[in-house]
Design goal:
CATH architecture: Roll
Shape: elongated
Helix content: 40-55%
Strand content: 25-35%
Number of strands: 4
CATH superfamily: Ribosomal protein L28/L24
CATH class: Mainly Beta
Largest sheet: 2 strands, antiparallel
Structural class: alpha+beta
Number of helices: 3
Order of helices and strands: EEEEHHH
CATH topology: Ribosomal Protein L24e, Chain: T
Length: 104
């Protein structure tokens, strides 16, 4: 399992630790990943994802998983999250199509 956020694509970065005497040592900076269960209101079910803490705050800020996925570019998402986004878009289109004949 890769160390990558499934929603934002945040991954391992590499760089230098710099000491007081300016010695440089190569190091890896790992993302702060959590295994979380998020609820999709449109699909009516829970989804388990491996998400960075920063992404979790962004999901809450945008108003939930569905809103986050609808605003996120497809290239940033993992394969599973992209499939989830397509499923949400399809379900919302079906719901809108069901509402239109009743209004007419």
């Amino acid at each position: 399992m890769s160390r990558r956020c499934e929603l934002t694509g945040i991954a391992v970065q590499s760089g230098n630790k710099v000491s007081h005497s300016n010695h440089r040592t190569r190091t890896r900076f790992l993302p702060n990943l959590f295994r979380v269960t998020l609820i999709s209101d449109t699909l009516g079910r829970a989804v388990r994802l491996r998400v960075a803490a920063a992404a979790l705050r962004t999901v809450e800020h945008r108003g939930g998983l569905d809103n986050f996925l609808l605003k996120a570019p497809e290239g940033e998402l993992s394969d599973g999250a992209a499939a989830l986004k397509r499923e949400i878009v399809k379900k919302q289109a079906e719901a809108e199509a069901a509402v239109e004949p009743q209004a007419a």
